[in-house]
Design goal:
Length: 279
């Protein structure tokens, strides 16, 4: 039974690799390592000399590793680095004055309910960072602490690595940026609200375009990104300032609808092909 489960998991990972058009040398560990490398510039600029950031990061990593090991023991298979990348993403978006208990609960809720209970990365349709931050947002609606400021230039190297290697498709974040800019113009807001915001770019490229949580069809990627972009603008506060709450809630809603968008795109493609064949 265990061998059969491992074989199915390997086949699914291979299928994900083919969907993403990854080179054959991309193993699960290599993909996780690429995500870690892409996050490094953002972590360095976001954390800087602030010890509270690095202490929160350490607690997040320890928490997700504990859960990863527990589930690995229960399922009798080795852990992976995917949980560590989730911890890094949470550290970037987490308010600085979040209590120790809430940090543990946020990490636990995100990694367990959005990833591990489904069987690990590649089996779920949700991003653990998005789910964790959304949980924190609803648990403590009045978030008083300021999130780490994500520099736009720090996002670009990681974005180039992920898009260039095929781990992330460029259509999704581009569609989100175009949709949010258009919606902002129609609402008399500055179109640069999302375009030049480092945190928004981080969420769009690293979380919304995450292959696990995004659409996989070509049309679906554009539709999914456009939906998230419109939701971001719709969820902005009256001041028009981009907030982590608006970004993550839009990302969560987008990932929930991504499978439905893919199903619709697939159905449309089949019908179009049939009509073309039948003249």
């Amino acid at each position: 039974m265990q061998k059969s489960t491992n074989r199915l998991r390997s086949e699914r990972l291979a299928l994900v690799g083919r969907k993403l058009r990854l080179p054959t040398f991309y193993s699960r560990w290599a993909m996780d390592l690429a995500w870690l490398v892409a996050l490094l510039p953002i972590l360095i600029t976001a954390g800087g000399p602030r010890m509270v950031f690095w202490s929160n990061l350490t607690l997040l990593v320890v928490t997700v590793l504990i859960w990863q090991v527990l589930f690995a023991i229960a399922r009798r298979r080795p852990p992976d680095l995917a949980s560590v990348t989730a911890a890094l993403g949470l550290a970037i978006l987490l308010p600085a004055d979040t209590s120790v208990m809430m940090i543990i609960m946020t990490a636990s809720f995100g990694i367990v309910l959005a990833e591990l209970i489904f069987g690990g990365r590649g089996w779920s349709f949700l991003n653990p960072v998005v789910v964790g931050i959304t949980f924190l947002m609803f648990s403590t609606p009045a978030l008083s602490g300021a999130q780490a400021q994500v520099a736009t230039l720090a996002v670009l190297p990681g974005a180039a690595l992920l898009i260039g290697s095929g781990l992330v498709h460029w259509q999704t974040p581009l569609a989100a940026l175009l949709a949010s800019s258009t919606a902002a113009l129609l609402l008399n807001l500055s179109p640069q609200t999302v375009l030049v915001d480092g945190t928004a770019l981080f969420v769009l490229i690293f979380l919304v375009a995450d292959p696990v949580a995004s659409a996989h069809t070509r049309i679906g990627r554009w539709a999914h990104g456009a939906l998230v972009g419109l939701l971001i603008v719709a969820l902005l506060p009256a001041s028009g300032t981009v907030t982590v709450q608006a970004l993550c809630f839009a990302a969560l809603l987008g990932s929930i609808f991504a499978p439905l968008i893919d199903a619709g795109a697939t159905t449309l493609a089949i019908r179009t092909t049939r009509r073309a064949r039948n003249g």
